Amino acid sequence: MVIEKVKETSKLMLKKILLFGLLIAFANTFAQHTVTGKMTPKNKHSWVILYRLDGVKQKYVDNASADKGNFSVKDGTFSVKIPKGAATGMYRLLYDNKKNLFIDFIYNNEDVAVEFHPEHPVELVKYTKSVENKTFQNYMYKASTLQNTLDSIQVVYFQTKDKAQEKALQKLYTKELQKLKATQNASETESKGKIASIFITANKRFYANNLIKDTKEYLNTIKSHYFDNVDFNNPVLLKSSLLIDRVMDFVFYLNTSNDSETLVKLRKEGIVTALSKISNVDLKKDVIESLLYTFAQQEDIVMADYILKNQFTKLPISLQDYEFKAMVLDLLKTTVGVKAPDIVWEDKGTHKNLYSLKGEKYYLVVFWSTTCSHCLKEMPLLQKYLEDKPNIQVVAVALENKQSKIKWIDEKYYYEEFVHVLALSTTEDSVYRSKYVKDYGVNSTPNFFLLNSDKTIIAKPYDVKELKEIYPKLDK
How far apart are alpha carbons 443 and 466 in whole angstroms? Predict the structure, then answer.
């Protein structure tokens, strides 16, 4: 009788314990958590935006600013809330949009506290709260230290011709490789059941058991095993930036050469290899667009054209973003080495265009506006610099609206030696509605395009200071 009562009591206690555990888990899942941060040294950043990563996309979650009460930024310290029931995965804290400075971290239903250097957020970061991020950071520190040692040994091995030294290096390499394998195994065991485990596995690098003497053989070995531990179908990785980053590193850093023709060949092969690993069509689309945009930004017409014709068009029709394609083509219109888009205007009733201008060795197309304070500082500097340079003609394209046109009429007379073109916006609130803004990819003013006598773009100086650096080298 007593035994039966004990059994019954045990069952009731077990049920209570299980129920209590479920309630705790449920409450934790739907609790509101906070990300707190401290930038050291203190800086002038006055806002932080929290995003949830979804591949190449950033989905807004919340923000902190200098005037936001409890969730604010003050003296480099900030606090941002994560809503109840927020999805787990990789999140991003963006605090400098101009320099694209941010911290990526794992969120798995826990508070996160992080300290970092605002100018070096990747190298100098420390998590003071968050089991997930402490686990992953600890692994990355240990693994990267050992990886750097192994890479250094391999470099020395390439260079040495001494047999005794080669033997010593191989012995040291074997010892350090064993340490790395032990670290990897221990970290994978420690992180079981955590999101960090997925990233720890994905960051596992391949190392041959023995040092390799031939550099070409070494590089081919690294390339052939580069994606061994990357699961392109893992739902957590698909929501992070890791997969895109890994492909970009493979294409741009493992497929390189000082010879331009070889470089093109290697990068094409690298792209084909990387895309062959990806079966998820949405990820493939993101990878293709990321590569295409990067090559367009680098003004690499050959590679951008290759991707457009050989990869972009192979995507399902529903995934071919034609607005994105048009944007890329617009970027390529003003690549150094191509003919500048034409500009037309009326001058005292006479129809003129950029290609009708003759007689000068160089032409400088300048997009500016009287609504731009920086332009009003740069234009006099430009005029002063060109006073003793008669072989360059400035074509000043003014991006104005109906209100600022009046000021432009007065302002342009200060620069009588310039050719003036009015690119009038049809809206009152913006000066960026002109056709030429699209043709030249202008998103800020002033914007400079230096052309030769044939109207081919030969340089795109950022400002007058950079023009001063470029111009003296043109005839050398």
Answer: 19
